[in-house]
Amino acid sequence: MExxxxxxxxxQIGSELVPELRKIYGNDNVFASDLKEPAEDVKNxxxxxxxxxxxxxxxxxxxxxxxxxxxxxLAAVLSGNAEKIPLQAWNINMExxxxxxxxxxxxxxxxxIFWPSSIAVFGPTTPRHxxxxxxxxxxxxxxxxxxxxxxxxxxYYHQKYGVDIRSIRYPGLISYKTxxxxxxxxxxxxxxxxxxxxxxxxxxxxxxxxxxxxxxTDAIKATISLMEADKDKLSIHSSYNVGxxxxxxxxxxxxxxxxxxxxxxxxxxxxxxxxxDSWPASIDDSVARNDWGLxxxxxxxxxxxxxxxxxxxxxxxxIK
Length: 320
Prior knowledge:
There is one protein chain. The protein is α/β, with parallel strands linked by helices. The protein is built from twelve helices and 14 strands. Helix 1 crosses helix 8 and helix 9 crosses helix 12 (300-314).
């Protein structure tokens, strides 16, 4: 039986990934860890611990004591926040990954690792439309630089030491269960919260800033599908492109207005606009589809319906 450790379990991905993994592997076999307490459903359903991935000795002790066989390393400083603390963000993002890679190299019982990359690995010299799997990666953000470097280390450890580490270049992730955590694509979550709470939203990107997005349900399904795929079928050992759907702030605003006709939006681009302009507008994820069967269920209309109803329920409101 697999014994799984999720690092960063209180974050946007972790808080929804842990319950799904527990459905598959059993509550007692999936350990949630973070520097802050997880959501109640994660905390109460199975084991959890306060764990700092930068504390190497405690990390090693935890993995050995609990006979961990798989690690999902999700902890990171995201794009918007990383620009405010560049050196600290670099150290956290890179040192934590290297700790996990060395752990997997030295402990043979660890048979599989998941580490998320991002569309932030791309930059202004990358083709913006239908960005291919193999292309120019010249990021101009701290977050993107750390993810680009991480991809090279991930492939190196696979080739040099045989570490089975798998990765997805996530697009913007959208969920109503956790609030935004400092990313450039966070407007696509914030807009739903503000639509319900105040009926208006000031967007930090321009109205026609197209970015690839993915509803969290599809992202979790993709992550687990990749981790369960036959190793021999995987042709990419850095990180797989995953595209989801592409839309602009104006388009998601217009979808929300179908439900909330009085909802208004204004635009006040900040430093995140330059980041968004350097990222792809759409992604070619055909390699992931061919290698391990990537599929996305949510398009913009279904996403809007689920998000509005989910956020409204959190605030004791109803959307028809």
